[in-house]
């Protein structure tokens, strides 16, 4: 019986792993859709690179750093880190491993897919002006070291876990970790040429392929079935199905409230805001998806949708140029979702709220400092930003041998 | 053992739920692919709206209306409908619920994904000229009230179920329900400017992105693995796998026969017809996917493919302007599939055929009347159709603040 | 217990079947993305045709030809082949069938999805100049007869299986079978007009939609979860999860090594090479995905990535015009992966290596001869290639009644 249950659990976790992998297509579509065609190859290159290097780095370093007897906890890893990182424990394929929720191999792959996500979030925010090599270097370090250390404090059984900090699927540990780096990177990089006029006017730079951006969001929503559903770490019928319900209701509510607020504020039906509202709802529910009732989930989503509309405006006001809205979606809604665990659902309470706040602050401080050190060092050595000429003519022309994303199509210049 | 079987069943149903969700991307791609670029944002907005509001409305009202002791049956709902609709029954996460096929949460989410589909079908038929707010209002009412009432008559254990009417996964209850509203809406809206010449000539208005339309159909086919496979309501190995086989064979046969018939009729290889033939095969098998042999499925698909070719021509002849072929695909093949249950497979027989016919007629009458009342009222109050200027210049320009789907690309005007 | 395990196993196999089906969207996106817009409808038509006819043909002929008591083994099929090919064995839905790994219906559908893949591989290599009817005829014969015969020698328990030849998921039996036909077809067809200058110069013909090509590769990667994960033929937790890990690591390593080698050779960041490197890694691991450690998988992938860079250059040097790199990816990496089973992992050894080599050679000879006979006959009767005028103006214009893939967009002529 146990064996069969392991088989069933492991199937669910493998399906979820595939869905989280598929989120990378969602991110890719979203990011290229919301930026200009002249930088499309460059963005795709970054995203494909992150998936590949993210998995390899996580295999070499991250997985062992994040989980067993954390390095930050001051002890050596529990078992030998062999040359290529993965070393099957004796019980790794049995029901004794991970309470029979999945095998050691599934464990690695599911977590590895998560790891790459954090860097991908940054990728959207720095698009259209970051130097490819600099970004690649940053993402290797961030995925390989910063993400797993932060993760180990909670998911690896570290001090935040001991304090009772709760982050079910990573509103803080994935989305904010990516979001903090995004805000630091955007600050250090500066805005794209033309985004902010001399008079302080904000100029919209429209994305070149809105159907792709929309597809990206729907693919991300589907991916979240795996991101949250898999974070149950087994196929427990009650927990997984509740998680999918809260996830979908929060997404729907986030979209609707973002659509309504933005329609009231801007007097037109803004599809991009609608889409970011959905993502905000998804990020917002992620910290407590297994702790909420459907009603809680809808309220969390509704608030996340409003946050998105004001968050995007705020980021603009701060003269931070975030082409895809990554800061509002992943950072601000990530914080909101983490705090919401202390306000709604089964764990609500002032103590919990304060612990959630502490977790947000500690992870935030760690990520800001880490991202700043890495990115500032890169800026002072290799440089972070492409030349003005390259930015104006497009990164595809300069970094990718003139490869065009759509060579058969006639383009407008801008 | 029972617990483990519930876990396995529930995994399958959650996977199917994800696949049905993914169909919304398929519908979106299909609809924008087969229409003009100037209305792309508008169509995407509608589709994203339907997913979000569909889930929320179904949570508030639809699920309780459709399933437990139907309202139409004249009795009050079996259990208290709380403010937000969902109320976990005591046994909702145990093997006692739904014969151990899935949990209460999965039940809601799977059915909720279905509900939104019916409105999406309409969306394609009314594209490029319907007023956004009017369509949104219509879809809220249709998904929230009409769809669940019709559904309750069969799937909620209502009178059609008692009569022995059979509709496995919704040839009638989903596809025709959408299709009837589509034909009413198209009739009330009128055709797009330029579609029918004064001399009665039918002018093709080519879709602007055929690769996306093709992707939409392949995504829909994949989604049908969940639509039909999940309608087994458990992971029963024999029933689910037979269902996938009949579904895929009918789709393949529908495509091939549609391709051959249209090649004979029009002397060229028409990709759109091929694609609609696949969809016709899928809709056609849906009513009896678990009752057919592979041979039956192929024959049903072959006939559906021919129906598509003649159906599309018939709709044109009736001067009904259906940009994506929704009426031929969802209504006509939905009827065909429902009747086919009385002709082929395990339930074939004259009695069954007549019951199927009665079901088609009753649901049809109910949907036509409901859709007419809702849409006629909207037409006389808010209006159904955008202005001539808006239609000519594109709905994206007028309803979405001038947001363009592809601002970097140079376009032909038409 | 057994029943529940069958249910779980069958769920996994159905999910994998869906994923392999989804690969056809990946192939479609990849092929149209890497070719010119003027042939897009034509390529999509081919691919959609292959899925549909592939399933039907495999149902009529292929499945029975490939598996039960092979025809090539000189005996009649074990059981009656009825008119439509599928005939449920008495135990076909019980745990007695296929060691309880799946049902008879799942067996057929999973294998049927594989079958169509082989022809799709050819489709990419012959794109932009092959006659549609000729290609359709070829693919019917190849999928219906050649593929299942070759497959029966190993997977049907034929002589290669008896010799100990190993090909887990089809580096040889699927990818090389497709790849050999591709090279024969490309040779017989000749290169596209303009590909090779009179001075021997190779002119790059850029693909028209690189985002779609990228999406295609990510979809294919996801599909490989099912392609390799399903080839375990059950949901055995250890074997399936190891397979997913080796598959993903090989893909990632293939991408990274291809990116690095091509950057060194060509001094720019070539996204297409990166993408083909990922595919090369995937094809390379396919023969031994269940036999390798993660370390082995990374090495196999790294080598595959380098092979891709040199393979693409070699194919160009041989004046073979393969628009999508199918020969390097599927044929050369398919051979590499098959041989790698004799070099790395649990089966490594000189004897095994020689058996692998023999298998590669025998299947290669059979496929080359078969493909040559079929294609040469077609060439001499119906013709293989479109007219020069048709090629220059685009196949969409001539074979598809002037249907355009993107009629609203302004295009460059080339």
Break the fold down into its secondary structure elements and pairings.
The structure is a homotrimer of 414-residue chains.
Chain A: H1 2-33, H2 40-66, H3 104-125, H4 132-154, H5 159-163, H6 171-189, H7 210-229, H8 237-266, H9 271-286, H10 294-317, H11 326-340, H12 350-381, H13 388-393, H14 395-399
Helix pairs in contact in A: 1-2, 1-3, 1-7, 2-3, 2-4, 3-4, 3-6, 4-12, 6-11, 6-12, 7-8, 7-9, 8-9, 8-10, 9-10, 9-11, 10-11, 11-12
For CATH, the homologous superfamily of chain A is named as Ammonium transporter AmtB like domains
Based on the structure given, which CATH architecture of chain A is correct? Orthogonal Bundle
Shape of chain A: globular
> How many helical stretches of chain A?
14
Mean pLDDT of chain A: 92
Note the gap between the termini of chain A: 63 Å
The biggest beta sheet of chain A is recorded as: none
Biggest interface found: A-C, 58 and 64 residues
Q: How many discrete structural domains of chain A?
A: 1
- Class from helix and strand fractions of chain A: mainly alpha
CATH classification class of chain A = Mainly Alpha
Radius of gyration of chain A: 21 Å
Oligomer: homotrimer
SSE pattern of chain A, N- to C-terminal:
HHHHHHHHHHHHHH
Helical fraction of chain A equals 55-70%
CATH topology of chain A: Ammonium transporter fold
Hey, roughly how much beta strand do the residues of chain A contain?
Answer: under 5%
Number of strands of chain A: 0
Uncertain runs of chain A: 69-84
């Amino acid at each position: 019986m146990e064996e069969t249950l392991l088989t069933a659990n492991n199937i669910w976790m493998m399906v979820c792993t595939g869905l989280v992998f598929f989120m990378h297509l969602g991110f890719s579509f979203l990011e290229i859709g919301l930026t200009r065609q002249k930088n499309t190859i460059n963005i795709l290159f970054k995203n494909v690179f992150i998936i590949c290097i993210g998995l390899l780095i996580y295999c070499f370093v991250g997985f062992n750093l994040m989980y067993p007897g954390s390095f930050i906890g001051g002890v050596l890893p529990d078992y030998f880190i062999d040359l290529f990182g993965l070393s099957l424990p004796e019980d790794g394929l049995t029901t004794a491993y991970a309470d029979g929720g999945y095998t050691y191999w599934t464990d690695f792959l599911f977590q590895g897919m998560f790891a790459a996500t954090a860097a991908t979030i940054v990728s959207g925010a720095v698009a259209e002006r970051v130097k490819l090599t600099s970004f690649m270097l940053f993402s290797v370090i961030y995925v390989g070291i910063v993400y797993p250390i932060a993760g180990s404090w909670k998911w690896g059984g570290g001090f935040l876990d001991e304090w009772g900090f709760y982050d079910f699927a990573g509103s803080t540990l994935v989305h904010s970790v990516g979001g903090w780096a995004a805000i630091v990177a955007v600050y250090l990089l500066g805005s794209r040429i033309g985004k902010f006029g001399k008079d302080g006017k904000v100029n919209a730079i429209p994305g070149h392929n809105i159907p792709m951006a929309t597809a990206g969001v729907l693919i991300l929503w589907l991916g979240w079935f795996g991101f949250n559903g898999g974070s149950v770490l087994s196929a427990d019928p009650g927990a997984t199905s509740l998680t999918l319900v809260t996830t979908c209701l929060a997404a729907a509510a986030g979209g609707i409230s973002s659509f309504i607020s933005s329609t009231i504020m801007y007097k037109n039906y803004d599809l991009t805001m609608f889409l970011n509202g959905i993502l905000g709802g998804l990020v917002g529910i992620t910290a407590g998806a297994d702790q909420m009732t459907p009603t809680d989930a809808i309220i969390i989503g509704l608030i996340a949708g409003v946050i998105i509309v004001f968050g995007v405006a705020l980021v603009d006001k701060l003269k931070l140029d975030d082409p895809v809205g990554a800061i509002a979606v992943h950072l601000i809604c990530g914080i909101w979702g983490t705090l919401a665990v202390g306000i709604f659902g089964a764990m609500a309470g002032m103590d919990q709220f304060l612990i959630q706040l502490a977790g947000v602050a500690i992870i935030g401080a760690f990520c800001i400092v880490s991202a700043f050190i890495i990115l500032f060092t890169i800026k002072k050595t290799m440089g972070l930003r492409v030349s003005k000429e390259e930015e104006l003519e497009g990164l595809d022309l300069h970094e990718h041998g003139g490869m065009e994303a759509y060579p058969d199509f006639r383009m407008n210049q801008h």
